[in-house]
Design brief:
By secondary structure, the chain is α/β, with parallel strands linked by helices. The protein has one domain: 3-Layer(aba) Sandwich (Rossmann fold). The chain has helices spanning 26-38, 56-63, 76-89, 102-111, 130-140; strands at residues 46-50, 68-72, 95-98, 116-121, 142-153, 161-162, 165-173, 176-183. A hairpin with a 2-residue loop joins strand 7 and strand 8. Helix 4 packs parallel to helix 5 (130-140).
Length: 189
């Protein structure tokens, strides 16, 4: 696993051992960040990386110009890799790591009225959390002109509308789908 482009290009990232985390493949990561770069979503962005694992997606965002990334990850093995990767890439000063369950972390961020330009969501596919998390993020944390990207199993499409969020694109890469959501304009927080 490596950083594909930007300031930390080519740097290797560590991943936790075992099967409790599923890193995004380089192919999907490359496609995602090409899409984000072409639309200038990363320049100075405030990013939320949910179910961050090793932090590969958030670190790629930082490498490509994001201002700040908040990482949410509760698995202690993944947290060790995430912290090592932030130190290795020297992005620890532009990052916050919250070692909590995703739903607890979202409640804490909502209480502080934190807003994000880009939200990266990659929960375990079978956990059934996509819709609940998208609804919570849309209700409180996604900026009015923000973008939420959910990684899902291609065979399990998400609804076109979840709470105040509307799907604007769905791209399939083998067994993986990237589903992009923006805020419905009359529901922006």
């Amino acid at each position: 696993m490596r950083v594909i482009a930007g300031e930390a290009r080519g740097m290797r990232l560590s991943a936790p051992r075992g099967t409790t985390t599923r890193p995004t493949t380089d192919r999907v990561k490359e496609a995602l960040f090409s899409l984000l770069d072409s639309a200038h979503w990363l320049d100075g962005a405030r990013v939320l990386d949910l179910f961050a694992g090793s932090g590969a997606l958030g670190i790629e965002a930082l490498s490509r110009g994001a201002e700040h990334v908040v990482f949410i990850e509760k698995n202690r093995h993944a947290l060790v890799s995430l912290q090592q990767n932030l130190l290795h890439t020297r992005f620890n000063n532009r990052a916050e790591v919250h070692p909590f369950d995703c739903l607890q972390a979202l409640e804490r961020l909502a209480r502080h009225k934190t807003q994000f330009d880009l939200v990266l969501l990659d929960p375990p596919y079978q956990a059934g959390l996509h819709q609940k998390v998208i609804e919570l993020v849309g209700a409180t944390l996604l900026a009015a002109d923000g973008l939420l990207v959910a990684e899902t199993a291609a065979r399990m499409p998400l609804p076109e509308r979840i709470g105040p969020c509307i799907q604007t694109d769905r791209r399939i890469y083998g067994d993986t789908a990237l589903e992009l959501y923006t805020m419905e304009q009359n529901h922006a927080p």
